[in-house]
Write a structure and sequence with these properties.
This protein is α/β, with parallel strands linked by helices. The protein contains nine helices and 15 strands. The strands form three sheets. It has a five-stranded parallel sheet with strand order 2-1-3-4-5, with helices on both faces. Helix 3 packs parallel to helix 5 and helix 4 crosses helix 5. The C terminus is likely disordered.
Length: about 325
């Protein structure tokens, strides 16, 4: 039986978007049979950070170095956690310069020098263009599982002997494409695929949203997935950050039909609330090349029903009521 590859992801915390990208990549790798070590999952408050790095880098079969511009600078200067990980990895390279243990990928990096000096001679996978993400992801996954990036063709049959040709297995990414694990973000997907389902969040904060075609300016949303308890429209609210109490909206129907710019509030079976705002819609019935919805979303933490952003916290209740009334 083939051993499950264990992968440590080494990256710099450039900003929240970069951390979310790493979390999404790790989530898809786990779904495709890779045992990922990621600080966002495996670090807890209190444990020694250098020990986590040392143990992870030692126990992992491979190390994925996400070489953003910030990562390269920190590695070259020996700064922070990246500098510490670089010291450990450079020591391994000194022991065996031919090792393929380190996998390098490029993202958020427009520099002509895309790799840190200690990895300068390594081949890399270029994730800088989002439109080729799926192609690059297939290359990465094949490499981690020990498959050739460009598989050698199978030996053909003897043309003089009747045989059944061998069929090349195909990788399946369908379910994993429709997942966004961060607690907030923006999603665009073709709702005619994956049975109209797109999952946001993870664990107890998982919401398996379900959608179907209605028109070019509205869409159907449903509670049909196992993780969803109720659904409602946030009437009169223009922004997710203005929802003060998500529990007050009507949840008597199992489906809702929001229009553009309207907000749907979902509650999952664990008691968390999710708000989704319809930002963009297109429909094949109205001449578009595909059925596509774009929605921004936020999951309220701690099972709260309050989505008010930090910039709204200082306002009085009366000021919030005026703001909400003006947005109706």
């Amino acid at each position: 039986m083939q051993k499950t590859p264990r992968l440590f992801i080494s990256y710099s915390h450039d900003d929240q978007a970069h951390k979310d990208w790493g979390l999404t990549l790790a989530t898809r790798l786990v779904a495709n049979g890779v045992d990922v070590l990621l600080d966002q999952w495996d670090m807890r408050l209190g444990p020694d950070l250098p020990r986590f790095m040392e143990t992870g880098l030692t126990d992992a079969d491979r190390v994925l170095a996400v070489c953003s511009a910030n990562y390269v600078e920190k590695a070259n200067r020996g700064q922070g956690g990246v500098g510490y990980e670089k010291m450990i990895l450079a020591g391994r390279l000194m022991q065996d310069i031919t090792t393929d243990r380190i996998v390098t990928v490029i993202r958020n990096n427009t520099s002509s020098v895309a790799l840190p000096m200690f990895l300068f001679s390594r081949l890399y996978i270029d994730f800088r263009a989002e439109q080729v993400f799926e192609v690059r992801y297939a290359e990465l996954l094949r490499d981690i599982h020990g498959q050739s990036v460009a598989p050698r063709p199978s030996l053909g049959p003897n043309p003089f002997v009747r045989t059944v040709p061998e069929i090349e297995p195909r990788l399946s990414f369908a379910p994993e494409r429709y997942v966004s694990p961060p607690i907030s973000g923006t999603v665009t997907f073709d709702y005619s695929n994956n049975n109209g389902c797109f999952a946001v969040g993870a664990g107890d904060m998982l919401f398996e949203t379900k959608w179907s075609r209605k028109g070019s300016t509205s869409i159907h949303a449903y509670t049909g997935a196992p993780s969803i308890r109720t659904i409602a429209l946030a009437d009169g609210i223009a922004e997710i950050a203005l929802i003060a109490d998500a529990s007050i909206y009507d949840t008597s129907s199992r489906s809702r039909s929001p229009h553009l710019s309207e907000i749907v509030v979902w509650q999952n079976t664990a008691g968390y609330y999710l708000a989704t705002k319809i930002d963009k819609l297109q429909s094949r019935d109205h001449g578009a090349p595909s059925d596509e919805v774009t929605f921004s979303y936020m999951i309220a933490p701690y099972k709260e029903a309050n989505f008010i952003s930090d910039r709204e916290i200082g306002k009085s209740a009366s000021e919030l009521q005026v703001t909400q009334a003006n947005n109706k």
